[in-house]
């Protein structure tokens, strides 16, 4: 998500307002500390950033 917001020159505050999430919840998603994400939230983020889920999600076996 960090790369896409940088490419779109959008701050986390702007994204949080446009998606309708609190800044703290968006920060949890950005840092990988969230354990789950609703499809509606993922869809809203992708819509605002004009991207696909694969552009902002990363799969790894490492615990953060």
Characterise the protein shown here.
- The chain is mostly helical.
- The chain has one domain (2-56): 434 Repressor (Amino-terminal Domain).
- It contains five helices and no strands.
- The chain has helices at 2-7, 12-19, 23-31, 39-49, 53-56.
- It is globular, with a radius of gyration of 11 Å.
- The two termini are 16 Å apart.
Quick description:
By secondary structure, the chain is mainly alpha-helical. Helices cover 59% and strands 0% of the residues.
Cα-based radius of gyration, to the nearest Å: 11 Å
* Assigned CATH class: Mainly Alpha
Number of strands: 0
- The chain-level mean pLDDT equals 90
Instruction: Provide the helix percentage.
Output: 55-70%
- Derived from helix and strand composition plus strand pairing, the structural class reads mainly alpha
End-to-end CA span: 16 Å
Q: Uncertain segments of ≥5 residues (pLDDT<50)?
A: none
CATH topology label:
434 Repressor (Amino-terminal Domain)
Shape: globular
Instruction: Enumerate how many helices there are, as a single number.
Output: 5
What is the H/E order?
HHHHH
CATH architecture: Orthogonal Bundle
Largest sheet composition: none
Query: Which band does the percent of strand residues land in?
Result: under 5%
Q: How many domains make up the coordinates?
A: 1
- In CATH, the homologous superfamily goes by the name lambda repressor-like DNA-binding domains
Per-chain topology:
Layout lengths: L1 H6 L4 H8 L3 H9 L7 H11 L3 H4 L8
Features:
64 residues; 434 Repressor (Amino-terminal Domain); 0% strand
């Amino acid at each position: 998500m960090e790369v896409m917001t940088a490419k779109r020159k959008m701050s986390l505050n702007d994204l949080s307002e446009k998606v309708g999430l609190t800044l703290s919840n968006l920060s949890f998603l950005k840092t990988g500390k969230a354990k789950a994400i609703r499809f509606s939230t993922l869809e809203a983020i992708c819509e605002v950033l004009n991207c696909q889920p694969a552009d902002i999600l990363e799969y790894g076996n490492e615990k953060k």
